[in-house]
Amino acid sequence: MVKELEQLIDMAKNKPVKTISVAVADDSEILKAVAKAVNLGIVNATLVGNKQRIESILKDENILLKGAKIINEENSKNAAKIAVEEVSLGKADFIMKGMINTADLLKAVLDKKADLRGKGILSHVMVYETPTYHKLLFLTDGGMIPYPDVNDKVAIINNAVFVASSLGIQTPKVAAICAVETVNPSMQSTLDASMLSQMNKRGQIKGCLVDGPLGLDNSISKEAANHKGIKSEVAGDADILLVPNIESGNFLGKSLTYFGNAKSAGIIVGAKCPIVLVSRADSAMSKLYSIALGALMD
Questions:
Q1: Which of 95, 186, 191, 251 makes the best surface tag, with the fewest CB within 10 Å?
Q2: Rounded to two decimals, what is the model's pTM?
């Protein structure tokens, strides 16, 4: 089982080399990550953005990036369209968000002319390696869907299971986390969690184990689950944390990074190709792990 993000790089190196298309690539941390991925043999790269600025960063930062194609486009929205078009035309396999607003990039991805829409919804999956947990932790959705209903949550689970399965994790355990671990009719998230658990038991959500509502503590701590008398295959051993809304996912993810010293990788799934998406404030290593994660999605 994959337990460290560094393993994603090793796994990606053993796959056929893919081409990444970077929308608005003129940023030093992005270029460092892409250069490292190229030099490791994980990807080939197409960089769309201000060519003069890209070349200046590469020179000033002494970044060795061999064989990259640079497409000059100074307007960020046009750069997004071009980066997406590279995938639509079969010249690239997946997309990476550079120094551009997520909304502008997704608008280009979801344009009917791009033909990259998938059958379901797009959702964001973060993968965390934390010093205090015994395996990788998948968090969804803290970046795409503000207030998902139960049908959205089914699709979000399916997308996260796809990512986990791509890393060789069989039958991932999904904890639908809420503020409490009991069903409360006045708290919609607990009703959704209970419904998702029942749908999983009846085979409507496949390829995973779903339980909820569960608190964050008893989702990741056997001791907390035992203390509260919770008997569950998921409790204390969750692979995927399904959050009730975007705020809780955003806060939890950033808490893992800034308070918990977690390493991370992030990706949007649900389109016909993966979209590497991490915070612009994230490190070059986080971006490298995210590129490796994108390269592993088939």
A1: 186
A2: 0.94
